[in-house]
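FAQ

Q: What does a record look like?
A: Structure on top, sequence underneath. For example:
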């Protein structure tokens, strides 16, 4: 069959996939980047597998005392007061946060503060008047319809102007000639910290780019909303070639899928691991190794739990590139092209037998000059000492730990940081420092570990977004197990010769950490990750977590609802202060400010086609409401009264058995139906701890 350039199904239309995303070449040979093409690129998995024409950088509020490695101040940590300069514009004093010449695109804005009062302004293409104005240091108050796939409030976000919290924006902000972002303080005598990180692309000077004006936004609003929906529920590949196999793997045995010969690409991998000893699940997912080999070169060697995005313990993950149910079912949507041949191999290095199913969805894909191979690389290092920031936020005895080092040409796409923290408090004060090619200063210099992973204000609580999150945070103190995951989309980082990612090892209290890191990247045939781990490192004995968990339960605070009534405010609440009952994982999902009739809807996927027994674990208190439960449209006869005189755990609430639909999922709708006459205060709160979905028998 004659092949053409691979086509990318994006927004339900086919778009020609050219060397630099879906952008079109003009008659003069330059690239024309429309705003529509940037939106297409966000939801096209194939884009990253071709080396682009742009370069990537980041502006941030890092402590300006950091000027050079090993010079005084290199680990300075007062990161909320750095900015480029102050400009006087129309009589206003405006701090310049970002100032770049184009053609370019801002691909991510992360920001947070303890007080949001003030005014943000965007100036494009040399304009003296702002093209966009935001009436606060708060992206959530930007009057655009981005949706929670493209714009996310951080878990600790307080919407009040004088409240603490932040947000991250992934909606592209394009500019033809230049972009300047400023902030005007409303109270110059009291200046709170202004943390920010702004990622951007710079294209060749002859690139034609459509500036993100209001007219451009309005013209593309429908497509923005569609992209947001697709990010939250990725499209499923159904009509391509599928290779699959299934077997029981005894210790030291492997299973292999030999991919068809020729120019193809894997677009989806589905893996299901089952064991008769679920208590061994966490250690098993560390000792099952996933390998990919393309054109006779090994490109991935990584423990399956780390590959899933969940890291140590392999908890559930819900993201654009990776999904995992936390029980052994994993879906990868990383695009993996090859020129001649390929293999996907899973090896059981544990002492137990496991049942494994693996399938690969494959499509024809023409290999062109700048096509790259997919890689996943892993390393484990233990007992890394933490250095306390100190009162001056400028320790002299700190160090940078090498997170990743790649030689050759490629594109960096994201990473997993999974760890056990032996310190009693927060471990992640350190900034990321990313060096690309000939950098003499990091082109990406961050403001803190949680900031890099799109949240703010430690300690971190579990959260999920299309671009990653924190799948695991066992204790409110940050002691014990923690996992961060970040995938890059428009903010991917291309490199021609070298990529180096270092992380400052700074903390609140003395101690040490065991770090397990996985990086996802594309590279040419000769590119290679250095300083990676091998078979000896998978024998790491996972320390006891000391966290109470209800067996085989899915934590509501770790999953995102499919739909929720707009009046509800969702908060992840630490339940350790309450002594009347134990909440699984120490947290619950709290829904506030609801009205009678409001609901929250969850979807649970990859379920066997047998009746499923559903047991909920909830919270009672004197201000909690009454609930009903609907599963796949069927109303449960069980109702729930959340009233109690004091905060307490409900124990198991058995709502019945239900059959999944034909696609193997169950949708649970929890509706606020009323209040007990004894309730006080807000009266309509809902507290969701966890859910057990237990397969029964097909009658």
């Amino acid at each position: 069959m004659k092949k053409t350039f691979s086509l990318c199904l994006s927004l339900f239309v086919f778009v020609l996939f050219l060397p630099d995303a879906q952008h079109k070449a003009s008659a003069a040979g330059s690239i024309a980047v429309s705003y529509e093409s940037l939106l297409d690129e966000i939801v096209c998995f194939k884009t990253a597998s071709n080396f682009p024409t742009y370069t990537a950088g980041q502006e941030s509020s890092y402590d300006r005392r950091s000027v050079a490695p090993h010079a005084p101040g290199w680990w300075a940590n007062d990161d909320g007061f750095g900015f480029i300069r102050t400009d006087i514009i129309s009589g206003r004093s405006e701090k310049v946060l970002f100032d770049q010449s184009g053609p370019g695109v801002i691909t991510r804005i992360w920001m947070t503060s303890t007080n949001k009062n003030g005014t943000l302004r965007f100036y494009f293409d040399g304009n003296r008047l702002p093209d966009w104005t935001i009436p606060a240091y708060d992206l959530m108050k930007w009057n655009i319809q981005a949706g929670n796939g493209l714009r996310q409030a951080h878990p600790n976000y307080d919407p009040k102007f004088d409240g603490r919290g932040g947000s991250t924006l992934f909606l592209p902000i394009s500019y033809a000639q230049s972009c300047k972002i400023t902030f005007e303080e409303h109270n110059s005598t009291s200046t709170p910290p202004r943390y920010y990180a702004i990622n951007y692309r710079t294209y060749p000077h002859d690139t034609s780019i459509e500036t993100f004006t209001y007219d451009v936004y309005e013209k593309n609003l429908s497509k923005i909303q569609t992209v947001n929906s697709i990010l939250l529920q990725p499209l499923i590949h159904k009509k391509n070639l599928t290779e699959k196999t299934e077997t029981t793997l005894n210790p030291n045995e492997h299973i292999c899928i030999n991919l068809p010969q020729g120019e193809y690409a894997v677009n989806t991998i589905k893996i299901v691991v089952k064991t008769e000893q679920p208590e061994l699940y966490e250690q098993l997912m560390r000792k099952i190794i996933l390998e990919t080999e393309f054109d006779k070169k090994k490109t991935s060697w990584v423990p399956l739990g780390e590959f899933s995005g969940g890291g140590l313990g392999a908890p559930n993950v819900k993201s654009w590139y990776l999904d995992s149910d936390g029980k052994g079912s994993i879906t990868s949507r990383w695009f993996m092209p090859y020129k001649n041949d390929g293999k996907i191999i899973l090896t059981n290095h544990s002492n137990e037998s496991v049942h494994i199913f693996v399938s690969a969805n494959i499509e024809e894909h023409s290999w062109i000059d700048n096509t790259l191979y997919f890689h996943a690389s892993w390393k484990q290092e233990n007992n890394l000492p933490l250095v306390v920031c100190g009162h001056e936020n400028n320790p002299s005895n700190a160090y940078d730990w090498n997170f990743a080092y790649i030689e050759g040409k490629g594109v960096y796409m994201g990473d997993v940081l999974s760890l056990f923290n032996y310190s009693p408090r927060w471990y992640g004060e350190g900034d990321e420092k990313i060096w690309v090619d000939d950098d003499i200063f990091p082109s990406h210099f961050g403001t803190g570990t949680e900031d890099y992973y799109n949240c703010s204000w430690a300690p971190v609580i579990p959260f999920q977004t299309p671009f990653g999150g924190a799948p695991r945070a066992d204790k409110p103190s940050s002691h014990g197990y923690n996992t961060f995951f970040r995938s890059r989309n428009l903010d991917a980082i291309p490199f021609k010769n070298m990529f180096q990612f270092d992380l400052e090892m700074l903390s609140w209290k003395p101690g040490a950490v065991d770090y397990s890191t996985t990086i996802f990247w594309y590279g040419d045939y000769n590119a290679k990750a250095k300083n990676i781990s091998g078979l000896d490192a998978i024998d790491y004995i996972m320390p006891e977590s000391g966290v109470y968990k209800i067996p085989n339960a899915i934590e509501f605070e770790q999953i995102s609802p499919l739909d929720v009534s707009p009046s509800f405010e969702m908060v992840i609440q630490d339940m350790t202060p309450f002594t009347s009952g134990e909440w699984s994982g120490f947290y619950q999902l709290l829904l506030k400010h609801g009205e009678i009739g409001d609901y929250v809807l969850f979807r649970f996927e990859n379920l066997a086609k047998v009746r499923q027994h559903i047991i909920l674990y909830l919270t009672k208190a004197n201000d909690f409401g009454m609930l009903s439960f609907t599963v796949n449209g069927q109303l449960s006869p069980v109702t729930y009264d959340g009233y109690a005189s004091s905060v307490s755990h409900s124990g198991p609430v058995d709502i019945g058995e239900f059959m999944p639909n034909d696609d193997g999922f169950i949708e649970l709708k929890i509706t606020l139906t009323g209040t007990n006459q004894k309730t006080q205060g807000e009266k309509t709160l809902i507290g969701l701890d966890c859910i057990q979905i237990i397969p029964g028998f097909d009658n």
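Q: Is there anything notable about this one?
A: The longest helix spans residues 221-232.
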